[in-house]
Amino acid sequence: ELQKLHTELTGCGIGVDPSLTQTTLTEVNKAWSRMNESAQRMEIQLNAEEDRHKRLDALLQTYREQALAARSWLLAHGTLATVTGKRLSWLRVLHEELEKALGDADHSMGSQMARLRDLSAQLQEQGVSLTGESHLEFSLLQSEWDKLVPQLKRRIEQVANDIAHRDSMRIQYKMAPEQVDELLDIFEYFDTDHNGTLDRGEVAQMMQALGERVRGEEFDRRFAEIDKDGSGTIDLNEFAELMRSRVRSIETPQQLLDFFFGLGTANQVTAERIIHVFGTVLTPAERSHLNSELRIRPNGAVDLNGLVSALC
Length: 312
Known about the structure:
Radius of gyration: 41 Å
Structural class: mainly alpha
Mean pLDDT: 77
């Protein structure tokens, strides 16, 4: 525009100080060039910064997704490592799941934790933090990981020992797996503090439920007979021996009736309780016969007198 005005003034014969005009044009052109160069440099810097932010956003999103997956895995398998149960069939399934979890930990999850470590280091170098998502911090995930893997190994060993124990009992007493489970159900019914053994108080309640009203020295003698290893408590094997001998020793209708009533409050014994107790020592045919003789009252209880008459 300045150049155009200068030309028009000159054409009209209007004199303009050439040095002033030329100096002004030169300075304006230089300033314009500097501004263009500065703008270009700023645009390059802005584009570079925008690209950097996009890369960091993508990096953060990748870390967040993998950290969430790792945390879900840790929480799920942390629960798996602490779950408890005694049924033989259930223990076998649990053992398989624990073995698979440990295999995942050694391979896929191990690689994922290594990737998370690298991603976390890159984010720290760029000064990026997980604002409001402290539960996804790598240090916390690493701490949980370091505790879980040994826990899985210990639990696998415990479950394997439990399975071996159940199998040895099944072989020793010639039981089917479901009969071992039923025996465990009865044992746990009397094991009120759920510590895996029956103390003197629990044994007293059990003996009373089974129709033995003994106290004092007589109770001490009976407890010593059951407590084969002299540990002061009754374990599962000792309980199994007691139940087999107790059921097999029934000879008269009255003894059978007393035993049935020992399984629950008078006239409130359920078919499930009876099958659970006798299922541990009867053959499949005997169990089927027992089940066929059960007469259920309207309240769900078994007609014990009618059952005893039918069986005896």
